[in-house]
Design brief:
alpha+beta, H-NOX domain, Arc Repressor Mutant, subunit A, 2 domains, five-stranded mixed sheet, two-stranded antiparallel sheet, 17 helices, about 50% helix, globular
Amino acid sequence: MTTLIRAAALTNYLKVSQQLRLDPIPLLAEVGLSKAQLQHPEHRVSAEATARLLENSAAVSGCQSFGLSMAESRQLSDLGAVSLLLLHQRSLRDALQVLLHYRHLMNDAVAIHLEEEGGRAIIRQEVLSKSPVACRQSNELAMGVLFRLCAALLDKHWRPISVHFTHLAPANLRLHRRLFGCHLVFGSHFNGIVCPDANLDMSKPLADPAMARNAQRYLVSLQGSEGPSILFEIRKAIYLWLPLGRASIEQIAEVQGMNVRTLQRRLKDEGHVFSVLIRDARRDLALRYLGNSNYPLGRVAELLGFSVATSFTRWFISQFGMSPAAWRKKRQAVVSLR
């Protein structure tokens, strides 16, 4: 099943392309998209095609921050019907819960998780894909949109501590520093934002409960009777928890509020099994982490849930026909020729 997202996710693609003197038509056609599709925000497009489009556009234009450039001028209203409900939430915590609950109406390829520890809140965010496709630009776009959402809701009270990316830093950090205005961490083990936990519960005096109720009633009418697929929810949980060593079927079932047998049954009803979802997530994340030369192979093994590096090496060979070290060396050789 192809993961679909609102075409609004590509808001500003044409604008940024024009600024970089890039012809978007052939790039769109290459991934099966068209200019006409981008002019209808509620139209659904392939998340994988979108990720390839952004990576190809960054490569052709030579702009390593193509995705972040698209996020810089995004508005809260670009999130569609959910934006009104977000605007009238009492706190950032409530707004994040709205994002989690209604994310299938906006972007089913993005997983978000909130955790708090030692006076800090970590808003982790991951971009999912059905096939191993580079997601650097998609991650930066999603991170920029999330950051700007927090800033729009809290205004001058927004006090981010740091922004984290699993990929390496671009050669030019000017845009990152201007947009985020806080400590930047590249080569991190997660993508996300760290802020004081006090930011989460800071009240918003302009929030209107009546408007929030009206917006929620409207959103309920858009959801349909079935709601989001359990497959999407479990895939997102795996991507978020696997690097933390907490992606066992028991733990994922607990996160979803069900027992293991119920989770297995619901997956079976959709034609899937948990072990295959874990394997596919590991394959995707393995290539992402190995593409980051800052990660030692032992660290990659840990992030993928292997207790010893030799187990990771055997698994990787069974999946890709070569060792992780050989794959990394081959990729570096290809990159150096570009």
